[in-house]
Amino acid sequence: xxxxxxxxxxxxxxxxxxxxxxxxxxxxxxxxxxxxxxxxxxxxxxxxxxxxxxxxxxxxxxxxxxxxxxxxxxxxxxxxxxxxxxxxxxxxxxxxxxxxxxxxxxxxxxxxxxxxxxxxxxxxxxxxxxxxxxxxxxxxxxxxxxxxxxxxxxxxxxxxxxxxxxxxxxxxxxxxxxxxxxxxxxxxxxxxxxxxxxxxxxxxxxxxxxxxxxxxxxxxxxxxxxxxxxxxxxxxxxx
Length: 239
What we know:
Layout: H1 3-34, H2 36-43, E1 51-52, H3 56-87, H4 93-132, E2 141-142, H5 143-160, H6 163-172, H7 178-183, H8 185-199, H9 204-233
Parallel strand pairs: 1-2
Helix pairs in contact: 1-3, 2-3, 3-4, 4-5, 4-6, 4-9, 5-9, 6-9, 8-9
């Protein structure tokens, strides 16, 4: 097999896997779209909070946003599986097993992070910001701005909680060491400050509530990297 044929076969395989994921996402999107009302009521569990819309486009935005995010969350295991299946030929047998084990772990960590952001971080940030207007103005929220604010906190937390799984996988295939993570810790912290400012609403409180968990996750990832390397080689790595 020539190099051109090899590349062509890989591109065809990649195209096939992208189509499978796209079809699955479309099916899940339709299913979530048909159940948006239930999803909306589940998310908006505060009976005292009344949201408004400014036009028909806001209603469509709610439907498509809620449906697309829920469909993406359900697709995470399928996406990670096809990524694993595509890179599997380049991995050693032990690495293949390790990568396959991380598929459910990625999904569980995403759900954990999203739940952490939704049940803990978002209520604290939201109540604090609303309390600032107490006695000054009458607060009224549109559905679009409320859910945009919610997803700017919850989704990054879901994605960032997958950091330990990514670190474990890179450690398993010998691409990451605790020494490397310690060496660039201050640069990572600076990047986390910038990232928290970019992905959150433009207020200091939201950025702080995102930055602190990210720092803790990075430190936990260093511990996991050290633990995994110690298990593999029997060498103790000091923090």
